[in-house]
Write a structure and sequence with these properties.
A hairpin with a 2-residue loop joins strand 1 (32-48) and strand 2. This protein has 368 residues and is an alpha+beta fold. The protein has nine helices and twelve strands. The model is unreliable at 357-368 (pLDDT under 50).
């Protein structure tokens, strides 16, 4: 069933994204040759009218292929008025930006459904993702070592930590062993020695394990959006999407600046795992996860990186300022650079997924 929920998950995200491109292309009079869910070899396909609708083998994306999308593509004089490359800049930009916008529309529909039946939408505060301490438990190793509320743990045994899960993992691996913490307290940095308590607990497989705990908790603040009636739900859903967009942009900025650890960036394996877990909890958790990832996909697609939607929009903006498009060779080189960066990112997130999910699963499966 995990694969089924993952297919539904990716299918919805891809369908809405490509539907945005497709509808806008049709609205502005551009001929669409293909609408595909997935990349690579065709699995299923049917031509309806002038468009071939496909399901392709690699389910990690999709595409809409308008006539004249590729520079130098040959076409008849009759087809040129309906070609992508012969459209004014604003029409081409509208087609491209419609994909991310429809991902926001998907999130809006989901949040609207929740709020219409008086289910709340929660937006976590950015501070809850940091290593700032909210509470120190009585008689805990943290209290005995002198840790205080609002202290931020920036390193453990010389290893920098930027988020709570990364920090917790290091404590878990050192039960009963002294570790040295670098603490930021106000504008001052201090070092503190601490010995995590050895605590027995159970892992995800139900096996008993011993982990390290120091007795601190993080800030769990979140903005809760609720609707008192079905009439206020549409407006509250706009607020929910807006707040999630703002949070996502802030996280992206912190990732780029290094304020949030890039180790927390996940890829398809993590998403499949998280989608399956959300589905096992219930419909609310599952569709809430779809909405959040859909917003993430929209924002990431709008980054000004060649080959992403944001890269195309950047080229269109330059064209609008210059009064003429960039040279095809420059665009080709930029797209190759963008593709190389994208492949590096894909490799990185797969590495994160493997070290975070696959390797522990293999270790648990091995005979002891």
């Amino acid at each position: 069933m995990s694969i089924f929920w993952a297919v539904v998950f990716f299918g919805l995200l891809i369908f809405f994204h490509e539907l945005g491109h497709f509808i806008l292309a049709k609205l502005v009079g551009v001929k669409v040759l293909k609408f595909s869910l997935g990349f690579g070899p065709k699995l299923l396909g049917k031509k309806i009218g002038e468009t071939e609708y496909l399901i392709s083998a690699i389910p990690l994306g999709g595409y809409v292929k308008p006539l004249g999308e590729e520079p130098g593509e040959e076409m008849s004089e009759e087809d040129k008025p309906r070609s992508f490359q012969y459209q004014p800049v604003w029409k081409r930009a509208a087609i491209v930006v419609a994909g991310p916008v429809f991902n926001l529309v998907l999130a809006y529909i989901i949040f609207l459904g929740f709020l219409s039946v008086k289910l709340p939408v929660a937006i976590p505060e950015l501070d809850s993702m940091t290593t700032t301490i909210e509470n120190v438990m009585d008689d805990s190793p943290a209290m005995k070592a002198g840790l205080k509320k609002d202290d931020a743990i920036v390193a453990i045994n010389g290893v920098s930590v930027m988020d709570w899960s990364e920090m917790s993992e290091l404590f878990s691996k050192n039960p009963g062993k002294e570790v040295v913490l670098k603490i930021k307290r106000g504008n001052e940095f201090i070092n503190i020695q601490i010995i995590p308590d050895a605590v027995k607990t159970k892992d995800e497989s139900g096996n008993e394990v011993v982990v390290g705990r120091i007795g601190i908790s993080k800030k769990m603040g979140a903005k809760i959006i609720q609707s008192s009636s079905i009439f206020s739900a549409p407006f509250k859903a706009v607020e929910a999407v807006y707040d999630w967009v703002v949070l996502t942009v802030e996280v992206v900025i912190k990732l780029v600046s290094g304020s949030v650890s890039a180790k927390q960036v996940g890829g398809p394996i993590l998403i499949v795992d998280a989608a399956a877990k959300a589905a096992s909890i219930g419909a609310f958790a599952y569709f809430n996860f779809i909405a959040i990832i859909s917003i993430n996909l929209a924002i990431l697609n709008l980054l000004p990186v060649p080959v992403l939607d944001g890269g195309h929009i950047l080229f269109f903006a330059i064209e609008a300022v210059r009064g003429r498009p960039l040279n095809d060779k420059i665009i080709m080189i930029a797209n190759k650079v963008g593709m190389a960066l994208l492949l590096l990112l894909i490799a990185f997130v797969f590495y994160n997924d493997i070290t975070r999910i696959v390797v522990p699963w293999i270790q648990k499966s091995m005979p002891q």
